[in-house]
Amino acid sequence: METRSSSSTLWAGDDMTDTDTMIDDARALDAPLHIGGVEFVSRLIVGTGKYETNEIMVDAIRASGAEMVTVAVRRVDLDRTKEEAILHHLDPDEFFLLANTAGCYNAEDAIRYARLARAAGFNEFVKLEVIGDERTLLPDVHATLEAAKTLAGEGFKVMAYTNDDLITALRLEDAGCVAVMPLASPIGSGLGVVNPYFIREIKSRLEVPVIVDAGVGTASDACITMEQGVDGVLMNTALAAADDPIRMSHAMKHAIIAGRLAYLAGRMPSREIAVPSSPTEGMLD
After folding, report:
1. Model pLDDT for residues 143-160, shown as the tens digit of each residue
2. Is 127 marked active-site?
3. CA 124 to CA 99: how far, in whole Å?
4. Distance (Å, whole) CA 179 – CA 195
5. CA 7, chain centre distance (Å)
6. Which of the residues 84, 98, 154, 180 has the least number of beta carbons within 10 Å of its own beta carbon?
C-alpha cells in the first residue's frame, strides 16, 4: 500500500500549532482513505482550473491540505519546462497528480486523453469525465461506462464522474472503477448536495470509495456532504472562484474533517419537540 503524506503548509497568520493539532486529532479518530491501493490522509481532492495565477493556485492547494490534485489534460500545456504552464508549478513529489478527461464529449476522446496523460508521465490513475450536455455539464452515462470498461481493461485506475443514479454507480463499479464520483449538483453551480438521499444510497451499496464531485460551493456544503457518509469530496470552482481562495481552502479543509468526524460520531435524533438537556428527576423543589 502506497502512503501519501499530507501537506500542512499554512498561509501567513495561521496558528500552525492549532492546525497541526487538529489534523493529528483527525488522523487519530479516523482511518486513512484508500483508493486503488494508495493511502491518503486528506479526504479533500482539489482541481487546478480557474485560478487567477499559478501562485494562488499552489497556495490554495497547500492551504486545503489536499494530497490528490486533478489536472485537465485536454486544457493544459503538458510541457513541464514552461514556467507559465500549470504542471511547472505542481511537484509530483508533493502532490498526487490525477489526470482528468474534462472537456471530452465522447468515449473515444476520453480514452485518447487518458492514454495521452499516461504517455506524458502521469500515473495510472485517471478521473474519467465524459460530458453529455453543454448547458448542464451532466455526464453521458453510456459513454462513461464504455470508456471506463476500456480504460480499466488497459490497467488504468479509473475514478469516474457520474450523476447521482445508483444503477449507474453500480455499473461503474462492475466495470472496474476504483472510485465512483457522483455529483452533488451541476459542475460549478455551488448548489451543494441537492439529493442527499441518493448520495447516501450510492455510498451504502458500493464497495469502492464514493467521492462526491461537483457542486460544493462553501464550507457548510462540504460539511453536509461529508455527513452523508461519503469517503471524500472533489472541488475546484468553490476555491478558485472565492474572493479569497486561500481562506476558502482553509475553511474547506476544516469542513471536510468536521463533516467526516460528525458522521463517524453519529448525530442525535431529530425531534419536533424540546427535550431538556438536564435530567428532571431529583430536582430541588
Report:
1. 999 999 999 999 999 999
2. yes
3. 9
4. 20
5. 16
6. 84
Whole-angstrom Cα distance, residue 284 to residue 157?
65
Provide the edge-to-edge strand list for the sheet that holds 232-235. Answer: 179-182, 157-162, 125-128, 96-100, 68-72, 44-46, 232-235, 211-213
Reported pTM:
0.87
One of 82, 127, 149, 157 is an active-site residue; which one? 127
- Which amino acid belongs to residue 181? M
Of residues 71, 188, 75, the one with CA closest to residue 136: 188
**Domain map of the chain by residue range?**
2-265
3-state secondary structure the chain: CEECCCCCCCCCCCCHHHHHHHHHHHHHHCCCEEECCEEECCCEEECCCCCCCHHHHHHHHHHHCCCEEEEECCCCCCCCCCCCCHHHHCCCCCCEEEEECCCCCCHHHHHHHHHHHHHCCCCCEEEECCECCCCCCCECHHHHHHHHHHHHHCCCEEEEEECCCHHHHHHHHHCCCCEEEECCCCCCCCCCCCCHHHHHHHHHHCCCCEEEECCCCCHHHHHHHHCCCCCEEEECHHHHCCCCHHHHHHHHHHHHHHHHHHHHHCCCCCCCCCCCCCCCCCCCC
Q: Give the pairing of strands 33-35 and 38-40.
A: antiparallel
Cell of 137: 455539464
- Cβ atoms of residues 209 and 157 within 8 Å: no
| Residue 136 in grid coordinates | 448542464
Cβ–Cβ < 8 Å for 39, 1: yes
Q: What angle do CA 232, 242, 213 make, to 5 degrees?
A: 25
pLDDT of residue 12: 39
Residue 62 has phi, psi (to 5 degrees) of -65, -40
Interval 184-219: pLDDT, tens: 998 889 899 999 999 999 999 999 999 999 989 999
